[in-house]
C-alpha cells in the first residue's frame, strides 16, 4: 500500500467493505449467538460480558446501554478494586491481564447463576485472563459466546499454559474479521494504522442483539430493553426494569 492510499477515504472504503462482508458471511453464527442471548433472557439469566484493553468498548456496547438488553452485566479488571477490596494501585500494572488467578477472582465477584450467558470479547483470544475466564465459565457449565479475530488468533501461539485459546472453548464464535494485529491500512515502510475490531465488534454485538430481540418477539415475549436516560422518564423506567435483576447487574458511574 502506497503513502497516497493511506487516508480517511481509504479507511472508510476498506472498513465499510469489511462491515458489509460480515453482515452477509456471519448470518448463521449471528443467528446462533442470538439464540444463546434469547435463551438467557427467557430463563431469567444475565448476560455477563467481559473483555480487556480496547475490547472493553464492545463490552460497553452490550452492557447497560440505551437500546440494549437490561439483563447485562459488565465484568472488568477494575472490579478487583470496586468490589474486591484491592488497592487502586494494582491497576497500575499494564500486564495485570496476563497474571494467573485474576479471572477466577472476577468470576467469583460477579457471583453468576447457572443460567447466565457469558460473552467474552478478545481480538487475539490468547491473553491469559481471557482464556482463564473462558475455562472457568465452561467448568461451571455456562454457555459461552466469543467475539474474536480468527485471522489473528490463528496466527499467534496460545498464551495460556493449557494451550487453549478462546475459540477452543466457546459454544459460538463471532469472527470480527480484523486482520492480524488489528490495524487495517499498511504503511509503506512497515507497520499499519487504523484498528478495525471496534467497528466490526460493535456491528456483531448489535446484529446479535437485534436478532435476539426478533426471536423473543416471535415467541410473544417483550425484550427488556433500556431507554435512553436522557429522555423524559427514561431513567425512572430503566430503574423499574432493573429491579428484576437486583443484585445481579452492576451500574456504576463509569
Automatic annotation (TrEMBL):
It comes from the Bacteria. InterPro entries: RpiR-like_SIS, SIS_dom, SIS_dom_sf, SIS_GmhA/DiaA_subfam. Coiled coil: none annotated. Residues 37-223 form the SIS domain. NCBIfam families: PRK02947.1 (NF002805). This is SIS domain-containing protein. It comes from Streptomyces prunicolor.
Amino acid at each position: 500500500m502506497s503513502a497516497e492510499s493511506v487516508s480517511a477515504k481509504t479507511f472508510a472504503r476498506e472498513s465499510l467493505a469489511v462491515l458489509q462482508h460480515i453482515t452477509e458471511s456471519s448470518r448463521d453464527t449471528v443467528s446462533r449467538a442470538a439464540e444463546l442471548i434469547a435463551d438467557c433472557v427467557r430463563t431469567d439469566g444475565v448476560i455477563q460480558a467481559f473483555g480487556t484493553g480496547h475490547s472493553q468498548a464492545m463490552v460497553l456496547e452490550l452492557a447497560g446501554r440505551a437500546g440494549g438488553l437490561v439483563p447485562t452485566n459488565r465484568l472488568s479488571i477494575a472490579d478487583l478494586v470496586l468490589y474486591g477490596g484491592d488497592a487502586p494501585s494494582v491497576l497500575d500494572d499494564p500486564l495485570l491481564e496476563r497474571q494467573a488467578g485474576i479471572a477466577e477472582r472476577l468470576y467469583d465477584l460477579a457471583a453468576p447463576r447457572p443460567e447466565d450467558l457469558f460473552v467474552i470479547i478478545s481480538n487475539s483470544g490468547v491473553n491469559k485472563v481471557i482464556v482463564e475466564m473462558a475455562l472457568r465459565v465452561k467448568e461451571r457449565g455456562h454457555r459461552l459466546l466469543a467475539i474474536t479475530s480468527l485471522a489473528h488468533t490463528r496466527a499467534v501461539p496460545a498464551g495460556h499454559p493449557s494451550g487453549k485459546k478462546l475459540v477452543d472453548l466457546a459454544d459460538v464464535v463471532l469472527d470480527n474479521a480484523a486482520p492480524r494485529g488489528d490495524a487495517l491500512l499498511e504503511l509503506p515502510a512497515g507497520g499499519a494504522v487504523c484498528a478495525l475490531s471496534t467497528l466490526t465488534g460493535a456491528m456483531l454485538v448489535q446484529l446479535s442483539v437485534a436478532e435476539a430481540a426478533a426471536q423473543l418477539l416471535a415467541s410473544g415475549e417483550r425484550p427488556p430493553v433500556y431507554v435512553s436516560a436522557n429522555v423524559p422518564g427514561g431513567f425512572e423506567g430503566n430503574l423499574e426494569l432493573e429491579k428484576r435483576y437486583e443484585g445481579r447487574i452492576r451500574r456504576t458511574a463509569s
